[in-house]
Structures are given as structure tokens and as C-alpha cells.
Amino acid sequence: MRVSEKNALARYRSFLHRLLHRLEHRLSAALDLKPGEMPALCWSFTFFFCLLSGYYVIRPLRDEMGIAGGVEQLQWLFSGTFLLMLAAAPLYGWLTSRFQRRQFLPYLYYFFIINLLLFYLLFQWEAFYTWTARAFFIWTSVFNLFIVSVFWSYMADLFSNEQGKRLFGVIAAGGSLGALIGPVLTGLLVIPLGPVRLLLVSALLLALSLLCIHQLNRWQLAQLSKARTDTLQAMPVDEPRIGGHLLAGFQLIKESRYLQGIALLILLYATLSTFLYFQQATIVRDAFADPAHRTLVFAGMDFAVNALTLSCQLLFTGRIVKRWGLALTLALIPVLLGVGFVILGLFSALTTIVVLQVLRRAGNYALMKPAREMLFLVVPREAKYKAKSVLDTVVYRGGDAISAWLYSGLSLLGLGLSGIAFLAVPLCGVWALIGRRLGQQQERLAVELQSNNLMRGESNETHY
């Protein structure tokens, strides 16, 4: 290479380096990032993107499998999901007790990748298609809650309370972008590949999330090593095993009124979401006879939900939490949903249920979900993984199962879609009151954490 070419290449590299540095500086200022946080934010954003895009590739398939198995059988599927959660929670508790976080997180994702490959093989047997469809519906419900719950447990453990309030909205936007791309991939690939081969696409995206886990573990080790050098103290480079017994998550909830409040919050959310899901299944089934058209409707709803969610997260989530506080943020969505149920009670039509579901889910992902995850920033590490897992899986799906049978019972008593919608309105009011109270308690615990001036390794723990 000639000297002039080498000089031109050197100037180009220098220009590119300055440009990237300038972009990083402006992005850090816009997102209110502190030195050293950019790599962790990017990997966390990418992690959640891969995770939810992988899930949303197969979510329309899951919804279609629920209808294929029979709408009248949905309460049994919800009950089966709850029982599977009940069995899986102690196994997860054992896993977190026996292994360090950097070990059990990859194990969990490898397990779900193998599951996806097994379902791909099972769907090749047409004689067992209906039973495989029902099993896939149950498994996907477990898969969704576990991977998302574990992700946010990891985030609550990785970042401090102060960092979480600044960064969780942006990290959640990564998931929303993934959830936006997932339905697009489904729409583009479902015809040329067929629905079942989408399982392989989901497995690939889940495998990419493993790369992000390894990079985030390296970032945290580097941060701990730097803190040890700066303070000249013998700080551990990696956290010990969480310890405890396999039912510790249930015990922690039993002993904490704060965690019990979160459990009640999740139960009310699950109940109202299940009511809407049953109404959606009934209305969509009656409106479309073709499974392909129903799958397309579900994919279109997912796209609309995630487009709206991403816009809100990037423009409003951080500002709302900062300006209104966590308490009012947690109360906002239940109040708006109560208004939506009133409208649904008056106009039980396809357009109404689609619009309400889109707005309800977008509001949950953009505001309610990040705000709810902030509640775990002030609890001990064991509660972040074990109690949170029980809350996000067993309690959530328990609420699904109970409300599914409750919905079926109300229908048998002759209560129609409008009557059930009006019955849900006061539940929204209770949900809003509990959310406001929990938000106030979290803010009080966060102030206590800051005043205690604990070391970084203990900065996310407090008495609760």
C-alpha cells in the first residue's frame, strides 16, 4: 500500500473515531448516561430486543393454537399453565440456590432453546397436532413469563435504584423494538416457511441473547474490579451463590407485606387481562372463520401495540416517572383501563376490543411494566430472583387460572360481554389504589437506601 493511501486510510479512521465519539457523547447527554454506562445500556437494550423479538415471532402462533384447541377449553389451558408454573418455580429456586448467576442464566436459556427445537419436531406428527397445539399454548405462556421475569431480575441486580430510574425506560424500549420486529418477521416468513418453522427463527434469536448475557457479565466484572482498585478495598470480583432453599421465594413473600402488595397488584392485573383476553378470543373467533386470517389479525395487533409502546417509551416513559413519580405512574394505567371497560360495556364490537387491547397492552409495556420492575430495585438479591420469579410466574398464572374459571362461571350465569366489562370497572379502582400505595413505599425505601450510604455490592438491598 502506498504512503498516500495509508495516510488517507488513517485520516478516514480518525474521522470515523471522532464521529462515533461525538455521537456517543450526544447520546449519553440525551439519555442522561454516566461514564461507563453506555456499554451496559447497549447490551441490555440488545438483550431485551433479541428476547422479545424471539417471543413475538411465535406469539401469533400461540394465540392461534389457543383457538385451534377450542375457545371453550381455554380455562383448562390456563389451569394447565398455572400447574406447570407451580412445578417450575421450585426447580428455578433450586437452580438459583445451587449456581452463580453467571452460570444459571445461560443454563435457563439453553433449556428453552432445546424446548423450541423439540416442539418443532413434535409438530411434524399430524396425528398429535391438537395435543401438541395445547401443550405449546401452555409452554409458551410459561416461556414468556420466565424469560421476561428473569431478564428484569437480572437488570434489577445489575443496576442500582438510581440507574434503574434513568435506564429502565430505554432498556424496555429495546424489548418494544424487538416486539415490533417479531410480528413483522412473522408476517414476512409465515407464508414461505410455514408457521412451524418460525420456532427455529425464535430459537436463533434466543441464542443471540446468550451473547448479551456474557457481555453484561464481563461489564459487571470490569466495574467491580475498577471499584476495587479505586477504593483500594478487597471487594469480590463476582457475587457468591444466592443460596437459600428451593421454596425460599414463597417464604420471602409470606414474610414481606411489600412483596404481598406486589402479589395483589399482579393478581388484579392478571384478572383484568384475562377477562379481556377471553372477550378478544370470542369476538375474533366470531368475526373470522379462517385460522390464517385470525393469525394475521393477532400479528397486526402485536405490531400496533409495540409501535405505540416504543414511541411512548422513547418520548414519555422517563418524563412521566420523573415528573409524576412512581406512585402516580403505577395508578395511571388502571384508571384508564377502567374507562376502557366502560366503553367496552357500551359497545362490545370487534373494533372496540381491538382498540382497547392495543391501548391496554401498550400502556402496560410503556408505563406499567417498567414502573412495576422498579419496585424490585429496593429488595435484596434473593428476593430479586426467587420471590420475583414466584410473583411473575406462579402468582401471575394463578391469577390467570382463577380469573379464567371465574369468567366461565359468569358466562354460565348468563352474564354477557357487557356485563363482565362493567363488573371489571371497580377492580380497576382497587388496582389503582394498590399501585399508588406501593409506589409511595418504594420511594420511601429508595430514600432509606441512599441515606445508608452502603457499598456498591449492597446498594440494592434494604429491609422491606
Annotate the secondary structure layout:
Layout: H1 3-31, H2 38-68, H3 74-98, H4 101-122, H5 129-158, H6 161-193, H7 198-231, H8 248-255, H9 257-287, H10 291-346, H11 350-374, H12 381-412, H13 417-452
Helix pairs in contact: 2-5, 2-6, 2-7, 2-10, 3-5, 3-12, 4-5, 4-7, 5-12, 6-10, 6-11, 8-9, 8-12, 9-11, 9-12, 9-13, 10-11, 10-13
Describe the structure.
The protein has helices at residues 3-31, 38-68, 74-98, 101-122, 129-158, 161-193, 198-231, 248-255, 257-287, 291-346, 350-374, 381-412, 417-452. It is mainly alpha-helical. The protein starts with a helix and ends in a 12-residue tail after the last helix.
